From TrEMBL:
UniProt keyword annotation of Cytoplasm present: no
Pfam families: OMPdecase
Domain Orotidine 5'-phosphate decarboxylase stretches: 18-267
Superkingdom per UniProt: Bacteria
Reaction catalysed by this enzyme: orotidine 5'-phosphate + H(+) = UMP + CO2
One Gene Ontology biological process: 'de novo' UMP biosynthetic process
Protein name per Swiss-Prot or TrEMBL: Orotidine 5'-phosphate decarboxylase
SMART domains: OMPdecase
Species for this entry: Jiangella mangrovi
Length: 286
């Protein structure tokens, strides 16, 4: 029986530290690395990142859009990135942010959550804003295969609050409602003794004291460290008592150190060390 994603992530965070490195080969970074903005440059960039970071970080997060923009050759590179990262022990979170209904959502689930697909990753990001139950095909398919799902909840983009902070008739925010659904989705796994549920949420590290209960029983992906303006110290303010479940994520902060593989490793390890230090201090002050 395949271990649940929650168990595997918990073990990886303990061994390698709580950090997710993005693999975002956008044109600016390709140019900064001296690479052409084509499929060959994409492959060189991505495979260098995997070589440097795949045995260092708990999670690697390829952003699918930057591969898709190169057409079928780009998707082929993404397939190799997923396979290579998993081969060196990293868990792969494929950042696709899909959100649809019915048979279309099942097709996304088949593509990203079923091991029969070459695009299957350990976890995938999804958008719940067609209603949480619209995610059911992805949730069911991922969990059936021991994979995970990260649900967008409180994002760091300035447009997010007009939807996520809206208040429902019952007094809860829309984001709070989504957090409640995720909490319920993890209840059975926690009752079975898993240290971490397999359904996580995405909460931007730039969202400040948001007033929501972020203890959902699953991992809390926190993008925004570094180039987007958040610091490791901000995590304590945003996540409070749920800090131990946080997986900070950074892309440009690490990838900007390339293309030298050792420089990429050093950049990732600095963030990992900073997060570990924060957790130690938070635990000591509890």
């Amino acid at each position: 029986m395949t271990q649940t994603f929650g168990r595997r992530l918990h073990a990886a965070m303990g061994e390698r530290g709580p950090f997710c490195a993005g693999v975002d080969p956008h044109p600016g970074l390709l140019a900064a690395w001296g690479l052409d903005d084509d499929a060959a440059g994409l492959e060189r960039f991505s495979r260098t990142a995997v070589e440097a970071l795949g045995d260092t970080v708990a999670l690697l997060k390829p952003q699918s859009a930057f591969f898709e923009r190169h057409g079928s050759r780009g998707v082929a590179v993404l397939e190799r990135v997923i396979a290579d990262a998993r081969a060196v022990g990293a868990l792969v979170l494929l950042d696709v942010k899909r959100g649809d209904i019915g048979s279309t959502m099942q097709a996304y689930a088949d593509a990203y959550c079923d091991p029969a697909s070459p695009l299957c990753a350990d976890a995938v990001t999804v958008s719940p804003y067609l209603g949480f139950e619209s995610l059911r095909p992805v949730l069911d398919t991922a969990l059936a295969h021991g994979n995970g799902v990260f649900v967008l909840a409180l994002t760091s983009n300035p447009e997010g609050p007009e939807v996520q902070h809206a208040v429902r008739p019952d007094g809860r925010t829309v984001a709070g409602t989504m957090l409640g659904h995720v909490r319920a989705a993890n209840a059975a796994a926690l009752a079975d003794g898993d240290p971490l549920g397999s359904v996580g949420v995405v909460v931007g590290a730039t969202t400040g004291g948001n007033g929501e209960d972020l203890a959902v029983g699953g991992p809390l992906l926190a993008p925004g460290i570094g180039a987007q303006g958040a610091t490791v110290e901000d995590l304590a303010t945003v996540f409070g008592p749920a800090l131990a479940q946080v997986v900070p994520s950074a892309s440009r902060e690490v990838l900007g150190a390339g293309p030298d593989p050792e420089a990429l490793r050093r950049a990732a390890r600095r963030t990992i060390d900073d997060v570990r230090d924060l957790l130690i201090r938070a635990s000591a002050g509890a």
